[in-house]
Specification:
The chain has about 300 residues and is of the alpha/beta class. The protein folds into two domains: about 80 residues, Orthogonal Bundle (Arc Repressor Mutant, subunit A), CATH 1.10.10.10; about 210 residues, 3-Layer(aba) Sandwich (D-Maltodextrin-Binding Protein, domain 2), CATH 3.40.190. It has ten helices and 13 strands. The strands form two sheets. Strands 3, 4, 5, 6, 7, 8, 9, 10, 11, 12 and 13 form an eleven-stranded mixed beta sheet that branches. A two-stranded antiparallel sheet has the order 1-2. Strand 1 and strand 2 form a beta hairpin. The radius of gyration is 24 Å and the shape is elongated.
Amino acid sequence: MKTFGDFDGLALFIHIAQAGGLAAAERATGISKATLSRRLSALEDTLNVRLVRRTKKGIVLTERGQQLYDRSRDAFLLAEEAISGVQDEKVAFSGTIRLSLPPDMATEVLGPALIKFKTSYPDVVIDMTLADRRVSLIEEGYDLVVRMGSLADSGLISKKIASLPRTLVASPGFLAAHPEIVEPQDLREIPALAIRRDLVEWDLRNRDGLKTNVTPRIGFAANRQTILIEAAVAGLGVANLPNFMIEAELAYGTLIRVLPEWDSSPVEMTALWQKDRITARLVKAIVAAFENALA
């Protein structure tokens, strides 16, 4: 029986299959599409098996290709984890890491945490993108993504890094100019501020454990919490904002609590990364740095 030796080609095949195409695999691995295509063809020639069908939208695994992927993926995952485990700190904490972070949280907390991390580990190259949209971690080649709010099951490793309390607030001038807000349902008739105009629902709970939800009437929407704070201070409406971002405004009285006997549900912050990255040790260290900064 002829000995198989193209394990590098097999590893690239697994990356291509995971990414769903050569372009996405190029972003994920940093290896050009031409090289990936050549190595994939060489692997098929070595095995004498067609592993993929090329389409306009990318690649589709053949039956034999799917069989090879299913049987080899976990083995390579274990190998990459083993390599990560034996790397010394200088090797593990080096190279480039690409991150996608929510803009407001990056500006307030995560960015400073990365600056501190970079100071401690100068061999790490930080490539940070700020984005509100839900990026595709694999297809766009990110090593670590931080997202706000609920998440769909993605098959990625996920870890909740913070649960951020929020408070309903408005300016004194706004409250004086509008009918008194006595109960949650009054919010339906009051101008409100939010990160989007549709599908906004505020979940509230009082001290007796009673829960309710309100769909506010959004009159001003912006996908930046900092802008919503300014809009609330200017008297444009009621906003549901993270506590740590409005501490100064509450202290100075430019914003005051609305329905103080009701607490708004917190917003969850979650880190996501791939299962099969050799960068796992570095990623976990950065996630820990984020957790410490948010504690």
